Amino acid sequence: MEIENLSVDAVVVGAGVLGLAISRALAAHGMSVACVGPDHTTPGTASSAAGAMLSPISEISPDWDKKGNLEELEFRIRSSAYYADFLLALNEDDGGSVFYTPGSVVIANLVNESDRRTLAAMRAAAHRYGLRAEPMDPDDVPGLRPARGYDAFEALFLPEEGAVDTVQLLRRLDGLIRATPRAHRIDTFVSELLRAGDRIVGARTAGGSLISAPVVVLAAGAGVQALMDGVREACPGLPRLLAGKGVSAVVTGMPMAYPHVVRTPNRDFACGTHVVPRGDGSIYIGATNRISGTPGSADSVTPGEVHSLLHAAMHEINTGFRAAAFRSVTYGMRPLTTDYHPLVGRTPVPGLYVATGTYRNGLLMAPLIADIVSREVRSGAPADDNPFPADGRLRPANPLGDSIAGIVEEGIGHLASFLLEPGGHLPYDRYRELRSFLIALGRVATDEDDSERAVLRSKFAATPMSEIVPQLFYELADRERAAPQDTRR
Ligand SMILES: Cc1cc2nc3c(=O)[nH]c(=O)nc-3n(C[C@H](O)[C@H](O)[C@H](O)COP(=O)(O)OP(=O)(O)OC[C@H]3O[C@@H](n4cnc5c(N)ncnc54)[C@H](O)[C@@H]3O)c2cc1C
């Protein structure tokens, strides 16, 4: 939809959950707003591909209590507490309620060696923040019927977590904005930000219309980076945004109901396998996770991604998914900053605000972020409860510095996990051995000292490669395992 030129109090760029929630919050405080962006059915929109789990605790990893991780966990807990009122207010207006599923069950199985540690971390975190986390017999988890060999050995019920139906939520927010007299919902892309001196003073739409406003909020998900690039020199130090592509599916025809979310913990790359009931009786299955740039990532769903998603759902959650009917398969680009934390509020550029970097938790965080951004816009000052300000935030230094050995070691740890997908099994203790073997090989390749290479060369000279590989596998893996703890990953 194109428009005549327009003048408003604020332009919000993007109509995913963040753009819509921010537009609504600003309009609720009497501001005239133009929310500019294609609607949520546009391919690549993260919000509509999301399971929309509201997961402060079940999103954590074993290193949850490190600085940075802890701040984000606390922000998720605050976001979760904020949600009840947000939903209540939405559901009070005419126009239908947004379906909410109470409770999440997290299962641990042998697909990933860290599941047990991650569940222990969830229990510890829940205890620390006074949240409920109740052990459950995996046999009692409704809808859990994994394939042989994929049995869950532990389950944790988190009654205060849950999920919303993301499509209903987006439709509802979109409809409310369209019905607000002060708000304009404009279904097009923004091509450029307008500047006057050092200030941002509005936006140009893809059709060439000009919208002037003293405030522009960038909430265009992974699309924020391209818009920021235009004003890059004004905020040179900000962390860059990447796109973490996620594929999900919605199916119908499952013979059982899911009264709660059922999910695995997050694992290296993936965001865990999860099954979420939707308001119309369909079931959402999520999700893959790859930083875009991998083959097929750009603008479609690949067979490999669908295979990985369904393999996990059918083996780890319920073999019955074999006979379900597809309603949709979709993908979204999760906005991810290089320091892994959201970017919220004022930027160093006058008139420019940002709300993104929510990665796996944007549905959960949207109402609280909208409240923070709305307060910063109205006061013009930083909100003292914003833990992720964009003003003054610096791109993190690479923790590995220039160390090639460190990069190889870190990369190989992830490579070993990547090689296990889907399925996750190597016989015996071979996952660890493979990782140790590859790390040891990486060291040989990157070490200044040539003596290791000389030993290897003499082994290869003495024995055919096909015979020496198993021996080397155990030898190098054993040596790596015996290395002092602090030199290991
Ligand atoms: C598969 C998957 C599962 C997920 N599961 C969960 C979950 O269970 N719980 C949770 O809390 N979070 C989840 N997330 C993360 C969550 O979806 C995101 O963090 C959140 O949706 C980001 O919202 P957004 O509005 O910033 O971005 P988006 O939803 O991506 O919206 C941005 C919009 O801006 C538009 N846009 C881009 N460029 C421009 C431009 N120049 N002009 C105008 N518009 C533009 C895009 O087309 C898009 O429509 C999941 C994400 C995925 C992909």
Secondary-structure topology with pairs:
Layout: E1 6-7, E2 10-13, H1 17-28, E3 33-36, H2 46-49, E4 53-54, H3 69-92, E5 100-109, H4 115-128, E6 134-136, E7 152-164, H5 166-178, E8 183-186, E9 190-196, E10 199-205, E11 210-212, E12 215-218, H6 224-229, E13 241-252, E14 261-263, E15 274-277, E16 283-286, E17 290-291, H7 303-317, E18 325-337, E19 343-346, E20 352-356, H8 362-379, H9 404-419, H10 430-446, H11 451-462, H12 465-482
Parallel strand pairs: 1-11, 2-3, 2-12, 3-8, 5-14, 12-20
Antiparallel strand pairs: 4-7, 5-7, 6-7, 9-10, 10-11, 13-16, 13-17, 13-18, 14-15, 15-16, 19-20
The chain binds flavin-adenine dinucleotide.
Protein name: Glycine/D-amino acid oxidase-like deaminating enzyme
GO cellular component, one term: cytoplasm
InterPro entries: FAD-dep_OxRdtase (IPR006076), FAD/NAD-bd_sf (IPR036188)
